[in-house]
């Protein structure tokens, strides 16, 4: 018996504020293109986007820390 993978949930957390430098939403770390395409993506496409988010979140945290250090 084959089990289908669970549908990939949207990473949106209703923060919805874009970072001008990175082009990522500060809530979910997706680009506007990824946000706009989300509902049309297949499950593999959604998983591909999700796979990038942790790295973006980490990079954004390092950018914020660097900016604080420069103040």
Features:
2 helices; 71 residues; mainly alpha; elongated
How is the secondary structure organized here?
Elements: H1 32-37, H2 43-70
3D structure, described in words:
This protein is an all-alpha fold. It has one domain. The protein contains 2 helices and no strands. The protein has helices at 32-37, 43-70. The chain is elongated. The model has no long low-confidence stretch (mean pLDDT 91).
Structure described in brief:
The protein is built from two helices and no strands. The protein is mostly helical and about 70 residues long.
Q: Quick one: how many beta strands?
A: 0
Q: What is the helical fraction, as a range of percent?
A: 40-55%
Average pLDDT across residues?
91
Point out poorly predicted stretches. Answer: none
* Cα-to-Cα separation, first versus last residue: 59 Å
Number of domains: 1
Please, what is the oligomeric state? single chain
The Rg value, from CA coordinates, equals: 15 Å
The string of secondary-structure elements, in order, is HH
As a percent range, the share of strand residues is under 5%
Give the overall shape: elongated
How many DSSP helices? 2
